[in-house]
Specification:
402 residues, 12 helices, 10 strands
């Protein structure tokens, strides 16, 4: 059983994390029974299976127990469908039909729930809006503003305790180094005015870094300004996507996350709040710039979709961040619109296939396969071929239109 426990994913519903204890499934069918008058015989017609329903036993506990409990109750009380991250089933879209809550004076600091979930039918899933890359970039900017408000509200400005000062100054110093690395990567192709604005934001961040830890408003404003400025200076969506992906892991290497003192509890809470704001900003940037990229094949789009799904799930299961319900709603909204844009792009693109060829010039291969040389340069770049005079083995080709 201990082996299974280590294998389980953290559980959450609508972004609120809980500890999974057990569950029980209820499977039933829709039936119509025709009874015969004055007879014990009847006819049963099976009309199909009912939507799966199951009960989950959950526990809420931790240092921020009261707020976590209320957030979980709010999530369960919502009439809308939500994302359930289940330890065994993965991501499920479902309704909370009912729940029972139990608290015991003998077990203070913990709350026990028995929750009945029902899988949502496909017709109830969020409908895709007519989104495009421009609307997604606006949502990215709105997500940065939401992250700023979240930081200002949730970050606890520290007192004069030396341990807290050092911990938070080091946390922001690492964030500054990450931002400078992204600035160097994106700035080489950036527009001069926008690069100047980003440099000014980084300079201001450096000057006020030691003072920001005492003001949640100043910290939130400066972090947001840096994020906005560095992602506004480069016109190339592919470069911005790569930069945002490099920002997402920020905070995953935070050490000493054991709450063994009052000061450490405050440090950990602030670290997780900052990590949450940065990761949402990074995911929103990835989503926005993924929608604005130019793709050549269906496989390229699918690779990006798979990456976005991975990072989206990390926002729900990572132990290195804290987010509230509003931030999870922001993420969900961006994900839905982004997948609409990407699936639309994917439907209009050709697919890559692998073929095995004997030694021959690439020019001859392309002409014999397509009947023209129109895709010669595309095939050359697709395979990173440096010597097109002789190619052999597995070669990636664009699927032919029949």
């Amino acid at each position: 059983m201990m082996f299974l426990q280590y294998k389980m994913l953290p559980a959450s519903f609508r972004g609120v994390k809980f500890y999974y204890r057990a569950d029980a499934e209820d499977h039933s069918k829709n039936v119509s029974i025709n009874e015969v008058l004055n007879s014990d015989e009847d006819t049963v017609f099976v009309l199909g299976s009912k939507t799966k329903q199951f009960t989950v036993d959950a526990v809420i506990k931790g240092n921020n127990y009261t707020k976590l409990k209320q957030d979980f109750i709010d999530a369960l009380s919502s009439p809308d469908i939500g994302v359930l991250m289940h330890p065994f089933y993965g991501e499920l879209i479902c309704y909370c039909l009912s729940y029972k809550k139990e608290e015991d004076i003998k077990r203070l600091g913990g709350c026990f729930f028995s929750i009945v979930f029902k899988i949502a039918p496909t017709s109830d899933y969020p409908s895709f809006a007519a989104a495009d890359s421009n609307s997604l970039f606006k949502k990215f900017m709105d997500a940065l503003d939401a992250a700023q408000a979240f930081l200002a509200d949730e970050y606890d400005a520290i007192d004069d305790a030396l341990a807290l000062q050092h911990a938070m100054e080091n946390k922001l110093r690492l964030l500054e180094l990450e931002a400078k690395s992204i600035f160097s990567f994106l700035g080489s192709f950036g527009e001069q005015g926008a690069v100047g604005d980003a440099a000014s934001s980084l300079t201001k961040f450096n000057l006020f870094r030691s003072k920001m830890i005492f003001s949640s408003t100043a910290l939130a404003e400066n972090i947001t300004n840096v994020n906005k400025s560095i992602f506004n200076m480069n016109p190339y969506a592919a470069s911005n996507y790569t930069a945002a992906k490099s920002l997402f892991p920020y905070g995953d290497d935070d050490k000493n996350l054991k709450n063994n003192s009052f000061s450490n509890v405050a440090i950990i809470k602030n670290k997780k709040v900052i990590n949450g704001a940065i990761k949402v900003s990074a995911f929103a940037a990835m989503a926005s710039f993924a929608a604005a990229r130019v793709y050549k094949t269906q496989d390229e789009v699918q690779a990006v979709i798979n990456e976005l799904i991975y990072y989206y799930k990390q926002l729900f299961i990572s132990d290195f961040l804290f987010l509230d319900l509003a931030m999870y709603s922001t993420v969900e909204d961006i994900k839905v619109d982004t997948f609409y844009v990407l699936t639309q792009a994917q439907a209009s693109l050709p697919r890559v296939v692998d073929i095995t060829v004997k030694k021959q010039p690439l020019l001859f291969l392309v002409y014999s396969y397509y009947g023209s040389l129109e895709l010669y340069e595309t095939i050359l770049r697709l395979n990173n071929i440096t010597n097109p005079s002789i190619v052999c083995g597995k070669i990636k080709m664009i699927e032919k239109n029949e």
